Amino acid sequence: MGGGSRAGHRLARAALLCAAFAAAGSATPATDNATHTIVATVLNGKYAPLFELWHPRFAAATDARVELVVACLDDDAVAAVRRLDTRARTLEATGGAHDVAAARLAKVHTVLRLVREEAAGSKRLVIYSDVDAFWLQSPISRLRRIEAPLAFSRDGVATAAGFDGKRGFALCAGFFVARPTEAAASFLDAWRLKGRGGRSSDQVAANELYDEGVGIIADEVVDRCPRGAVPAVWHPYSPAQISGKVFFWGRVLAKIASGDGDAFAGVRCSWGGRHKGRNRRAGGVVTARR
Ligand SMILES: *[C@@H]1O[C@H](CO)[C@@H](O)[C@H](O)[C@H]1NC(C)=O
């Protein structure tokens, strides 16, 4: 996402497209915050094949009471959303600036915007899910029971960005939930400011802001490395290329769908590389084998 003027024009065009689609789809639905929820994600054209893998599971796990909001980083993302989901709302995702850091923080900007909208409006819960966090069942009823204004899923591998040895995990910025409250908005605003300028990843910035007010989403609800029972949301570790992700994860998802009890056998459970083997045990305890 370079900052040249061509990229600038493309982004401006994407913004116009997004705005046009948003206006076209804005027949206000009846919203009761006890039953209605927002799920937000961020997409660029490169990740469209992953969105194609993600969306059918998401759609099967949810119904019309869930509004999907996709923050689009380019035209191809808008096109992919329109292809797969005519009801989804699209937003412009650049945060108003054409720089890399702003794009990386698109999820934070988007959720902050939605939390503020909902705080002033329908007061729906806002869930953020990366398109590589696969919804096998709906996590929503479990997420509703969390009282903290903001709660994150966890990454228990010692090599995760923002990992804290004392805590035994990193907050994972790929899946989190926000209540439509001032407390959530102020954390998101602080997160946005801390992540600005590209000095550290969005996840590192979130972990630097961690305090006792931040909730944790249980591993039964969102898990990176399931050891048997299928979590509501599986957020696997990543083979590098998009095509590899789609291929390997698609195979595992097909096994889960067919009821294969061993679906997760052999899936990677770390970021690999020289840190291979430093894996989490149940409960977030970390083993460091050397
Ligand atoms: C729903 O709205 C009420 C107030 O209108 C609020 O007390 C409650 O916390 C909201 N639910 C969620 C999930 O934020």
Protein architecture, described:
With 290 residues, the protein is α/β, with parallel strands linked by helices. The chain is 37% helix and 16% strand. The chain has helices spanning 5-24, 48-61, 75-84, 100-104, 106-120, 140-144, 182-195, 202-208, 242-257, and strands at residues 37-43, 66-72, 89-92, 125-129, 134-135, 150-155, 170-178, 215-216, 222-223, 233-234. A 7-stranded mixed β-sheet has the order 3-2-1-4-7-6-8, sandwiched between helices. Helix 2 (48-61) packs parallel to helix 3 (75-84). The longest helix has 20 residues, at 5-24.
Question: Which terms would index this structure?
Answer:
290 residues; alpha/beta; Spore Coat Polysaccharide Biosynthesis Protein SpsA, Chain A; 3-stranded mixed β-sheet; 10 strands; globular; binds 2-acetamido-2-deoxy-beta-D-glucopyranose
How would you summarize the topology of this molecule?
Blueprint: H1 5-24, E1 37-43, H2 48-61, E2 66-72, H3 75-84, E3 89-92, H4 100-104, H5 106-120, E4 125-129, E5 134-135, H6 140-144, E6 150-155, E7 170-178, H7 182-195, H8 202-208, E8 215-216, E9 222-223, E10 233-234, H9 242-257
Parallel strand pairs: 1-2, 1-4, 2-3, 6-8, 9-10
Antiparallel strand pairs: 4-7, 5-10, 6-7
Helix pairs in contact: 2-3, 5-7, 7-8
Bound molecules: 2-acetamido-2-deoxy-beta-D-glucopyranose.
2-acetamido-2-deoxy-beta-D-glucopyranose is lined by residues 33, 123, 125, 179-180.
